[in-house]
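Q: what sequence does this backbone want?
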């Protein structure tokens, strides 16, 4: 039965200079519960004037915010993490209603973002410069890590809590001001986090929010006062953002599409491996940039395929708020149609469909955007289901004879977000991690997303820009290194003559 908790119809506000305001735009989009097709809110597509006002507010706030003591900025992060923890369940309910993922996964979404906020509380040590005394006679050199100015973030629908929390806390704790553009498909949970940031003490203008589509994105990419842009989303949009913003002199980090593989060796622990594969492939309905898309079965591990299918059959498809749900709906009817089209292409191109999730029916939610767990074997690298990011609960299986073949296969794929290996051999693991050309590697871990003490290091076709989100790389991205070389003379010091060489003496 449909027991979803009713959420009052809500209009997503803009946040400009500390005020939550109604947009004056004429263009609006419904926020739709993907399990029920119920309209639960509306989101405005901000006008150019509203975007410019948000950027101006951030620009005006920067002068004083950059001078705010770093301890004061960290205390705001300490307060924010406390507020997020206290309100996690309420945020998760809204997140599930607008995005579709299970309540448990929604809380996980928030938790992984919360970890970044916690790490931001230690920015004092992360933002320290370097100092060397006596690089020449009486000369010292040191560096400062200074904020850039106004930064912007463009976030995707699949993690409306985690990805915004990857961005604005690290940016503002480093002394920058920020303009956030959440996904127009599920902005309500993001706005709850933004409200908590204001409650935590973020001053007016330091954090601003605008909503919209391509016009808003392009304005952020081209506005003269934006210094840096962080993006997470599709390859097509990420490439556009990187190119357009780069042409206008912005620093850009663009985390994009993926095709993540897991290699299964015959010596792996079978039960643990199969459980991990099922969870990584079908959790969040496959709508993760780090989701497992391809299982590469090496040698005799191909004999485990049927057991993998049987485990996947036990997953419960239902609305995300219903108890014991494993797979919720995909975000929209359009997304479902695309996933079904790719599944159909796999059948047409000759892959063997071992588990078909196309016709799943969920009682009480007949209008939901549901796709069940789907598994193909006999997949080759020319098929669309291998070449394209599906972003749905679809797993492709490829069988090879050796580890070398598996490594060659994966290294030939253009994406480089994540890869996993399941084995009980340390020698095999060491060989694999050295030879694989992927930015993030999991050993007996299928989704190797690092904790915030490190950085998210997707590579190749999954990333444009040199520095990834959160961790030390985020501090590097959101700060400018200024190097100072100084010499001080005492009144009695012998001045000497003119020196026309480049050396310091």
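A:
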């Amino acid at each position: 039965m449909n027991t979803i908790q009713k959420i009052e119809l809500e209009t997503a506000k803009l946040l400009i200079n500390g005020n939550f305001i109604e947009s004056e735009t004429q263009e609006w989009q419904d926020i739709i519960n993907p399990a029920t097709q119920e309209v639960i809110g509306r989101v405005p597509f901000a006008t150019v004037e509203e975007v410019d006002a948000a950027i101006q507010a951030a620009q005006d706030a920067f002068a004083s915010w950059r001078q705010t003591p770093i301890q004061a900025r960290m205390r705001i992060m300490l307060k924010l993490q406390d507020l997020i923890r206290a309100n996690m369940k309420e945020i998760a309910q809204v997140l599930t209603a607008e995005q579709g993922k299970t309540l448990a996964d929604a809380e996980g979404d928030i938790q992984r973002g919360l970890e970044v906020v916690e790490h931001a509380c230690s920015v004092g040590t992360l933002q320290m410069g370097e100092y060397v005394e006596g690089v020449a006679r009486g000369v010292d050199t040191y560096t400062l890590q200074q904020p850039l100015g106004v930064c912007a973030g463009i976030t995707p629908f699949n993690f409306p809590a985690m990805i915004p929390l990857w961005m604005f806390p690290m940016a503002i704790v480093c002394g920058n001001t920020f303009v956030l553009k959440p996904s127009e498909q599920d902005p309500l949970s993001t706005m709850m986090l933004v409200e908590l940031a204001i409650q935590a003490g973020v001053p007016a203008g330091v954090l601003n929010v605008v909503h919209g589509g391509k016009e808003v994105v392009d304005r952020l990419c081209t506005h003269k006062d934006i210094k840096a842009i962080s993006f997470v989303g599709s390859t097509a949009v990420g490439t556009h953002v990187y190119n357009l913003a780069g042409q206008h002199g912005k620093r850009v980090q663009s985390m994009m599409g993926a095709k993540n593989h897991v290699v299964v060796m015959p010596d792996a622990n079978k039960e643990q491996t199969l459980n991990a594969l099922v969870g990584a492939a079908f959790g969040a309905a496959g709508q993760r940039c780090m989701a497992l898309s391809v299982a590469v079965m090496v040698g005799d591990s191909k004999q485990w395929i049927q057991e993998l299918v049987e485990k996947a059959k036990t997953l419960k498809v239902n609305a995300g708020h219903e108890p014991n749900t494993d797979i919720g709906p995909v975000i929209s009817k359009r997304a479902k149609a695309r996933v079904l089209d790719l599944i159909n292409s796999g059948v047409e191109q000759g892959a063997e469909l071992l588990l078909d999730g196309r016709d799943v029916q969920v009682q009480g939610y007949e209008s939901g955007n549901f796709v069940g767990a789907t598994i193909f074997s006999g997949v080759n690298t020319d098929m669309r289901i291998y070449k394209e990011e599906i972003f749905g609960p679809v797993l492709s299986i490829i069988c090879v004879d050796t580890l070398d073949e598996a490594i060659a296969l994966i290294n030939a794929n253009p994406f480089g977000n994540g890869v996993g290996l399941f084995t009980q051999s340390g020698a095999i693991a060491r060989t694999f991690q050295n030879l694989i050309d992927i930015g993030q590697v999991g050993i007996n871990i299928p989704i190797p997303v690092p904790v915030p003490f490190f950085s998210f290091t997707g590579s190749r076709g999954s990333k444009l820009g040199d520095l990834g989100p959160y961790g030390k790389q985020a501090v590097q991205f959101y700060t400018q290194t200024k190097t100072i070389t100084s010499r001080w003379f005492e009144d009695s010091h012998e001045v000497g003559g003119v020196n026309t060489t480049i050396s310091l003496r």
